[in-house]
Amino acid sequence: MSKKNDTGNRIIFSTNPDYKPEEESNEQETLAPNQQTLYIVLERMKGGKVGTVVEGFVGTDADLQKLGKDLKTKCGGGGTVKDGIILIQGEHREKVIAHLNALGYKTKKKGG
What is the pTM (predicted TM-score) of this model? Predict the structure, then answer.
């Protein structure tokens, strides 16, 4: 397939000195906690260590980062937030489920 040079209604150039282009955002608006179901999975990482993974979050990256930081603090462990998932180092599935339920999220265990 070839790409057509279709600019649609986008402004390419403006002589107006006060013009500020609107930033296009591909992020979804964050759904309310009671409208989301998050899946909690235990995964074996490199070196045989176990990690707790939270997936299925619908919302902005900033809200996902905030939730990830909150969960890491609650579990007292390290972790990371990237590619739409939260990874907590260690086996904290029950703590994570209890905390997410307290925040209003629906949770489901996925896998073993």
Answer: 0.72
